[in-house]
Amino acid sequence: MAIAETKVDMEALNKAIDEVFYGQLDSTMLYYFQSCVNCKACEAACPFTPTSLHYSPVNKAEVSRELYRYRFSVWGKTIGRFIGGSKKYLSLEEAETMVDYVWHCTNCGACMFVCPMAIDSGAMIDLLKQVAFKAGMVPKIYRDIADLEISGKYWEIDFFKNSWNSLISKIKDAIGKEVPLDKKGSEVLFYTSIYEALAYPDVLVKVAKILDMLNKDWTFMSKPLGIRPPIGLVIGDKEGAAEVMQRVYSYFTDISPKYVMLTAGGFEYPSLRYTMHETFKVKPKYEVVHVTELLAKWYENKEFEIEPLDETITWHDPCQLGRRGGVFEAPRVLMKALSKKFKELPSHGVNSFCCSRGGGGCGVPSMVENMAKTLGIPVSDDDKKFLDSTLEPLIKAGKIKVNEINKIKAKEVLTGCPVCIESIGFSIDYYHASSKVNHIVDILADRIKVNKK
Amino acid sequence: MQLPFGDYLVGNSLYPLALDLFIPTIVFFFFGASYRVFRYFAVYKKPFIPYATSVMRETSSTEKVKKLVDTFANSSKVGMKRKPVTTAAGLLMHLSLIVIIFLLAQHMVFWAYYIPPYKILFPFAIPESSADGALAFTLATSPYTSTSYPFVHDIWGPLTIILNGQYITYILMILLGIYLGHKFHALAEGLTLRSGDWWFFLLLYIDIILGFLATSHIPNSVVYYDDLLGAHIIVAEVLIATLPFTRGFHMFEFYLGKVREWYFMTYRRGEK
Q1: Exposed end of chain B (fewer CB within 10 Å): N or C?
Q2: Where in the sequence is the domain holding A348, given as residue range(s)?
Q3: Any idea which UniProt keywords this protein has (chain A) (predicted)?
Q4: Do A35 and B253 touch (CB under 8 A)?
């Protein structure tokens, strides 16, 4: 694996372990640490278990527990050391295993809901990710992208600038007038990242069109607030993430809309809705929502009708939007209006089977590699090896997802997260399934009929 | 050889010693449990709630209650779908264990001695063996000795032919055997294992076997009976005393964890 071949600064690693494990204990984490009964029920929910039982949540989180026991339990300090139940620090080999484990977890939260003890293994694995980051053991390709976001220099890259400006032009063409930019006090701040502008510009144009059709008081950003802020949270860089969140929070506060509307339901949703405000301990006057939440609200207020499709459609609950963010109902209001043949996937809601990317794998490897190349970030052999190693889980988890889609014979899989679209799309292609995967707005926008007041 | 242990000559009979150790066991358990609970309070930090939602997240009270049930049931629901064998074994094992610990007639007498209101559950008592069940059903026998609590008249009726200590113990021994097999599989695969896994399961397994031997009078001698029953109680006491420090504590924390999940994932998240 890529990290193993780099020189590991053991001193930095030990320091990181102490800092992270002494710094973040609260009653919730204590419960997660000490209450696991090792029943392995979490294996049933984890998208990485089909790759190896070693990647089951309980197995990955055990590294955290061993480090915790040494520091916070009498048994761990005494007998635990002699029976292998606790560790003060990690050996080089154990550290390499730890890094391998943390990149085989998307922090999707599925394990928590299936755990009889409601333990969020992702939270413990996230601590290991922070350790890995502080010890300089993050894949370089991710760190470089995150650094670019933190420094703000992403806006100096022509490719990004051109993509963003091109998006604004497309929106302008679609609505037939100037795009309202950075307008303070608007009802809706249409928030998006560069990543989305690259992944699905058409979806963003359609969202703007809907806002215009509904005659909403909305505004768009003249400049993006990051590549996909806050990337730092995904790679274990809490300080870096806080810097980016400060930038985002300042902008949101400055514009002061009623709603900050996101089209992405990936890790940015709970980050910007919850984590950002929890970190700064602020109660904002605006509310961060996903586009499906606002559309469902307006639909239920009869501001528009939806011309239904005559085909079987299904909704994939993105892990961060659903389990972490709590948004289950709104997309279903729209899905049911969109087709009478709406069917749930066998695993849905809190049990939705994760696409195996997002909060952990950071996208399909080829996409990450291409983005790095576009940004001028050199992709080393180690990086390449690391990215290749993330492919197997995608294929294994994808098989389960595609089987579920095939089982209900869904023609369209709709969702609300760019990474889910990309990874499920990859799986559909890989297994030659006949379904298509789209952002819900992609289909919905063309079927909305505005009710004139 | 007889070893002196307080007033007792260990080797004569473990039974009176076991009974006298029960109260110290409970004291030790409460000490451990208090330590464990104290730790939660010691590191408690008040959660910061940024804001309540205004869109699309309202959950009716009925729905919230339904979701509370779902929260507790979800693990088994998903497990039955994706890991049917281990989930079914786990559920049956828990059910059997609960029935035998709290409803076996002999255990009920024990609990009622220390907690008198427990008597109210006597009608649910299950007999020791299938023969007792069959006799009670076919001959409708009554106890020969007078008793103020005629709990042998249970509500299970013909069910006691299968619902009895003997059969449930067989089931338990098989299911715990499967669990131990699962542990050996994990050991062979190099997966996570903890000392608590072995300690708790082995003590439980030994305890069930001792209880089974005692009630079955194997070997058939009063002296052995007293020792086996005493050993059965002592092992159970070791289990109870160390419960706050082992995975066994999940029988209490299970509710804490699930209610917490429901509170933060359903109740609070949907607040307006």
Answers
A1: N
A2: 337-445
A3: 4Fe-4S, Electron transport, Iron, Iron-sulfur, Metal-binding, Transport
A4: yes
